Description:
The structure holds 3 protein chains of 3 kinds.
Chain A: E1 23-28, H1 34-41, E2 45-49, H2 58-73, E3 79-85, H3 89-96, E4 103-107, H4 112-129, E5 137-142, H5 145-149, H6 151-155, E6 161-166, H7 168-174, H8 189-201, E7 205-207, H9 213-216, H10 222-235, E8 240-241, H11 245-254, H12 259-277, E9 282-285, E10 288-291, H13 292-321
Helix pairs in contact in A: 1-2, 2-3, 3-4, 10-11, 12-13
Chain B: E1 2-3, H1 8-14, E2 21-25, H2 35-49, E3 55-59, H3 65-72, E4 79-82, H4 88-104, E5 113-118, H5 121-125, H6 127-131, E6 138-142, H7 147-153, H8 165-177, H9 198-211, H10 224-231, H11 235-253, E7 259-261, E8 264-266, H12 268-301
Chain C: E1 10-15, H1 19-23, H2 25-28, E2 32-36, H3 46-60, E3 66-70, H4 76-83, E4 90-94, H5 99-116, E5 124-129, H6 132-136, H7 138-142, E6 148-153, H8 156-159, E7 164-165, E8 169-170, H9 173-187, E9 190-192, H10 207-220, E10 225-227, H11 233-239
Parallel strand pairs in C: 1-2, 1-10, 2-3, 3-4, 4-5, 5-6, 6-9
Antiparallel strand pairs in C: 7-8
Amino acid sequence: MHTSSENIPLIGPKPMPKYIRRSLFPLSIDDPQLGEKAFSSWADAIILDFVKKPGRDWQEDLKSRMPAAIHQAAKGGAEVFVRIERDVAAAELDATVFPGISGVVLKGVTGPEDIKAAAQRLDALEQSRGIASGSLEIDVEVNTAGGVWNSLEIARASPRIGTFLVNEQELCRNLGMQAAPTLEFDPLEYIKSQMITVAISVGGQALGMSYPLSLTQGNVGADALKQAVRIARDTGFKGAVCPHAAWIKVCNEGFRPSAEEAAYYVKVIEVFAEGLKRGMASVPIDGKMIDVPVDLRAKVYLKWAHRAQARDDEKARAHAAA
Amino acid sequence: MFVTPTNPRFIDKAWTRGGDVYILDMEDSIAPAEKARCRTLIRESIQKANKGGASIYVRINKPFVDADLPYAVWPGVDRIMLPKTESAEEIRHADEIITRLEKERGIPPGTIELSAMIESTLGAVNIYEILTASPRKIWSMGGGGGYDMAVNLGIEMFASFDQYAFPINYVAFAAMALGIEATGGVFVPNTSGRVDQGDQAAEQAKALHAAGIHHAGALHPAYIQPLVSGLSPTADEIAWAKRVIDAFDELADAGESVGELDGKVIDKYEYEMAQSTLEWAAECAAKDRYKERAMKKALAAA
Amino acid sequence: MAEITNPRRSWMIVPAHDPALVMRHEGIKPDVVVLDLEYSVPPKSKEAARSGLADLVKKIGESQVDVFVRVDRDTRWADVRAAMYRGIKGVIFPGPEEPAEVAELGELIAAMERERGVDPGVTELVLMLESAKGYWNAAAIAQASPRVTALGVGRIDLTMRLGPVPQDEFRLYRFLMTRALVAARMLGKQPLGALWRPDSRGGVATKEASAKAAREARLMGFTGCVCATPDQVASVNDGFSLA
């Protein structure tokens, strides 16, 4: 029994954030420039969308094209996901899950049964397609009222659950909201905060953008975008789906502690350690008291900054190697 | 208000500050190397800190529940605060130990209350189960604003908007659904990040009082007076409440349900509000009287 | 998609014990007339209100407006009995807390439909949430009877004693609006409610405040709200009509 331990355990052993996924860039497998766009995007992740060929053999068509598309999408070092519709999930999963993807983004989810069904399908596909068992993630693209109401059961439905992506535009339509930013508050404010809270409660994370850019999805200038990302980050989002390639750089830079913040955390850790040596539980820096929780935060966030940097280095290496 | 038992100067003087509640802290204000010594100081701190008539709570450590409780459960302690509460099981576990200690130490079992401090997203989403985990009286606290919740969410603190919109409101809502009074729940921007400014306390008290919340915590003595006065009903509010009750009683006698007083609507809702104001006023007055007597006694003995 | 063809934007409360006040609706033209047996009827007039309902419903039936009856939660069984006549579209139940209450009232309505010769199943139930417990059980409550067509935000500033906060809103208000909205949309029920601000009381507000409260609610996904006074009707109709 520890009586004077130096190590106060963290709340839960899970890393914060679970993944470094600051920018998710949707691309179509039908896009002839898929590879170039993925490479030059510098996105942390690519979401592959597809159109089902009319007729019966759309599955065969997709199966034949997916492996190459996945390979193209991964060129710049991005993780690759495939986006699936809940209603036809089983058939779409069969046609699109191949080695090289990190997981699937599931749209139209309304309850935990959707997740369990998809998870089962993934169990079988991992086995038959030589993918490490349990490795494929399920990310939930929240775009229905049921997805919101049942969010906790959905998040707990499978250990495969990774992130919640909030599709603000489709959610607005589903809820009968006007998807035009004429309100002085975000009509989705409590829903977004809920998604973030629920996702993090199971050790995952949520992705989304702040209002009103979340609804306009416009290609605004870098400064406006930086501010919007800052607010999104300070709400608890860890990244965003980028409708424009121009969003990606700002998201990569904004959804992580900045170099300045990282330097401050280094200072906090040093000063607190010094104080501890002298038997003090609380030390001032510029009028702010640094105590155990402040020191803890600095350590957690510094680690986050390092991981983000490592991800950037990894992508840089992927670019250099190509 | 939180006080540090390992700081003798502070503990000896705390009672003179006029707070309603002193929280003897074994947790975040105590350095790891001091935790063992802190345990040994709790019992004697109770009598020091309650001299002025304040209630005494003890905040224990989540990782050391079993080790801390034997040092925290004594006659004179009104409430145990469980930081970073995340599950019903934690409540049940603490409840079991407290019950055993109450019996051993001559405290009627169930007397000591619990505060479930919600400082993480997991605690927030589990709030209903937490608050229904035990027949012991459980108060609900938090859901946002502290370092731990901020780190859990991965946010910088002190932004100009409400960063805890869902967790704080959901926790307050669950408590309400269970008829439990929740503390906090009003967003007052604090972009300075400071916790020692009396005028900020006055702002906070004003906002909480208007919203109907009766209790607030503080880290610094400068907050005590502003919070105590800001959260008590004013003489005007009490006088108005009495008039409303009289007016509504008359309406009811006449078989009416809605009337007017000084241009304001009087109905069963205003009547219930007025009753609630008087109840709260009576509680505050009782506490003030109790503290006054205790202060007199303590000053005479000093 | 979430649009509706027969909008019920304004639900005007009229005291069922005062036929003259009730008939004023013809000049005001709300989408729904709510014959009230609750707040706007003093205790001494409740019996008269109940016994006058049959005639009142017949009289209003000659205009095109939809008619609902708002029962008092505490006397809802007697109120439903008094209300169930050909000509009403449904019953408003304020303050439901448990699904069993809604199921029970649905059954009582069914029995009264049979007794009074009303087509079985046509009588709607509209639920106005007015307590934390009701909000907690919102989805279960809204699913407790197939008659439920709408789920709304009641006079929660009053019933739940929600005080004002510095952002010019009532504490918990938009959180609770969001909760009702999500439950309603998930279950295909019409979401009723408006963003009343601390200068309004129990949904009673000036014309300007009503227009704003309704417009903001429309933007948030709601389709109509209760008008506690006739003055609010035109503004609320406007607010919920935004294209």
